[in-house]
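stage 2 :: seqdesign
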């Protein structure tokens, strides 16, 4: 039986670039602190008129074009996101409408920074069991909606963007060889979207603060290193491979220091770990999608290479795939 594989990739990044120097004017921070603590130099921020679906639709269009697939032939659309336009319609339905992909089933999934890999593994099952032939998986985030631009501990970390892929059966031994999905809900409070109530002086609730990201950075850092290393080793073992068989690791981009620590823990040369956090910050589910797109576009990943996609995110949720390109 042929494997399910990736036959086209797409991405979309908002034009507006917010640099560390711009942030210096907004909160008590410095370019030097942000670079040394995170590796981030700049990030993209969608403007007011661009909703999440705008990003998702553009990434989806490019992925279909690269896959040379007509929207009518798409059977399934999954959008991974934690920052949808609204609760409903789903972003997946908005993508379906824009593409005129009328035959497609469409739904969103919420798995934070692991959403792209949760989406890929979910779509893969539908193709493998014969229910669908072609699936479009999009990871799209307008995470700037949830940023408190007065909170220096979080506002320097995130950015907006989208990536996408088309999945279908592929010939030979190529394709997605192994999957790993994991959740640890008991650590959920380490990173949450919270809304605080503000009370008037007579103690009656007057307003709610806008929902915003709350994060326990140090604890997350340790959890991220341990769970990404564990996910990578587990999926490589499931694929019947050794670490030395892996040509590239494409990880979720939350902090360059996390990526160095994962490489060290795995005893893997950092040169095999693709890093683009300097340009985009943490785009949650879209980070891995855009990283994979760029690694292929830059010619780093070549046909026949074994790659590990590995993620970690709020929930806590981790995921990994081994893909023979
Ligand atoms: N500029 C300047 N100083 C800052 C800033 C800033 N932007 N932010 C915090 N500081 C200060 C703190 O107030 C603290 O000051 P103090 O020592 O006087 O109290 C000091 O810098 C050190 O702060 P720490 O929080 O200890 O810094 P740390 O080295 O842990 O780095 C960071 C913080 C970058 C958030 C790191 O902990 C991290 O990356 N954690 C993981 C985050 C993560 O993975 N998040 C997402 C995962 S899930 C998902 O992606 C959806």
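stage 2 :: out
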């Amino acid at each position: 039986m042929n494997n399910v594989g990736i036959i086209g990739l797409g991405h979309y990044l908002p034009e507006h670039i917010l640099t560390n120097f711009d942030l210096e004017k907004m909160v008590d921070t410095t370019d030097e602190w942000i670079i040394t603590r995170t590796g981030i130099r700049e990030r993209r921020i969608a403007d007011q008129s661009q909703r999440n679906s705008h990003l998702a639709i553009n990434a989806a269009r490019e992925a279909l074009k690269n896959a040379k697939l007509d929207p009518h032939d798409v059977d399934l659309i999954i959008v991974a996101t934690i920052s949808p336009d609204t609760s409903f319609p789903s972003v997946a339905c908005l993508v379906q409408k824009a593409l005129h992909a009328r035959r497609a089933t469409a739904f969103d999934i919420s798995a934070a920074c692991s959403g792209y890999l949760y989406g890929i593994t979910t779509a893969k099952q539908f193709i493998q069991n014969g229910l669908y032939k072609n699936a479009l998986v999009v990871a799209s985030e307008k995470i700037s909606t949830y940023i408190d631009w007065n909170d220096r501990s979080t506002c320097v970390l995130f950015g907006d963007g989208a990536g996408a892929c088309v999945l279908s059966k592929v010939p030979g031994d190529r394709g997605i060889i192994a999957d790993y999905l994991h959740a640890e809900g008991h650590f959920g409070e380490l990173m949450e979207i919270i809304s605080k109530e503000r009370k008037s002086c007579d103690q009656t609730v007057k307003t709610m603060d806008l929902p915003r990201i709350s994060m326990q950075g140090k604890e997350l850092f340790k959890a991220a290193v341990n769970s990404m290393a564990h996910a990578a080793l587990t999926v490589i073992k499931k694929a019947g491979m050794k670490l030395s068989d892996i040509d590239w690791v494409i990880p979720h981009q939350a902090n360059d220091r996390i990526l160095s620590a994962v490489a060290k823990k795995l005893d893997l040369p950092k040169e095999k770990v693709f890093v683009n956090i300097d340009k985009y910050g943490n785009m949650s589910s879209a980070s891995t999608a855009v990283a994979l797109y760029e690694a292929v576009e830059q010619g780093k990943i070549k046909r026949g290479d074994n790659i590990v996609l590995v993620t970690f995110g709020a929930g806590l949720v981790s995921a990994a795939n081994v893909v023979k390109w």
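stage 3 :: structure notes
- The chain has ten helices and 15 strands.
- The domain at 3-172 is CATH 3.40.47.10 (Peroxisomal Thiolase; Chain A, domain 1).
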